[in-house]
Design brief:
With 245 residues, the chain is an alpha/beta fold. The chain has helices spanning 3-21, 40-48, 59-68, 87-93, 103-112, 142-150, 170-193, 213-219, 228-231, and strands at residues 30-34, 53-56, 75-78, 96-100, 120-125, 155-162, 204-207, 223-226. An 8-stranded parallel beta sheet has the order 7-6-5-4-3-2-1-8. α6 (142-150) crosses α7. 42% of the residues are buried. The protein binds pyridoxal-5'-phosphate. Pyridoxal-5'-phosphate (PLP) is lined by residues 34, 36, 57, 79-80, 163, 209-211, 225-229.
């Protein structure tokens, strides 16, 4: 068995234990394998081990991998920060986007989504803890952005995504995840009360990574985004490696 297959089994077990501890069904938590910086062969290994959902952070890298792996029935999620000049490539190649955090990006994605493809599945990225290093809409502005996305023709609103500031303290991780969950419930109630188009599709709380998937699942995550614990550390040099002496 490959290391990747091994790691996927370990993650599946962590998800099962965390969900069971939280009184939830493990089937209610989906695993998104974050393959950024790893090559198409790593994705093929994960596919061979049964993984189907993959996440990418960088548009160009993601599109290259999607093109190379066109023979496989994979679902691709864009989870990185979005610039307006990259929205067309995202709209044409990905099935999901977790990082919609402003109106302009949402409108462009809807306009640029090819009409012969199903609607792009969208989570709104919210900056719950106000961390300065991250993108994401402020919690107070998330409901309005959700209503806007719900009304755009080529987008299907699905839920929220949050990336807390890194913390070693599980209680701290849990507290931030709980805030995301509360906002998720709140917006869901508002959408249903307003009879918003597609309110019933509001079902995805994208929360938790390699280091904090247990507190995320305890808080109600329905999709954990795991990179390092599946593919290994991302410490490869981006520029050409120095030649070994
Ligand atoms: C890289 C990344 C992940 C995966 O993080 P790991 O700690 O490697 O599991 C998850 N979500 C987002 C948005 C990321 O950029």
């Amino acid at each position: 068995m490959t290391t990747i297959a091994d790691n996927l089994q370990r993650i599946a077990l962590r998800i099962r234990v965390a969900a069971t501890d939280a009184g939830r069904s493990p089937d209610d938590v989906r695993l998104l394998a974050v393959s950024k910086t790893f090559d198409a062969d790593a994705v093929r290994d994960a596919f061979a081990a049964g993984q189907r959902q993959f996440g990418e952070n960088y548009v160009q890298e993601g599109v290259e991998k999607i093109t190379l792996l066109h023979d496989l029935p994979l679902t691709w999620h864009m989870i990185g920060p979005l610039q307006a000049n990259k929205t067309r490539a995202v709209a044409e190649h990905f099935q999901w986007v977790h990082s919609v955090d402003r109106e302009r990006i949402a409108r462009r994605l809807s306009e640029q989504r090819p009409a012969d493809l199903p609607p792009l599945q969208v989570c709104i990225q919210v900056n719950v803890d106000g961390g300065p290093s991250k993108s994401g809409v402020a919690p107070a502005d998330a409901p309005a952005l959700a209503r806007l996305v719900a009304g755009l023709p080529q987008l299907q609103l699905r839920g929220l995504m949050s990336i807390p500031e890194p913390s070693e303290d599980p209680a701290m991780q849990r507290a931030v995840h709980d805030q995301a969950r509360a906002l998720f419930d709140d917006i869901g109630r508002q959408l249903r009360a307003a009879g918003a188009a597609g309110a019933e599709a509001w079902d995805t709380l994208s929360l938790g990574m390699s280091a904090d998937l247990e507190p995320a699942i305890a808080a109600g995550s329905t999709m954990v985004r795991v990179g390092t614990a599946i593919f290994g550390r991302r410490d490869k040099p981006i520029s050409p490696a120095p030649t070994a002496a």
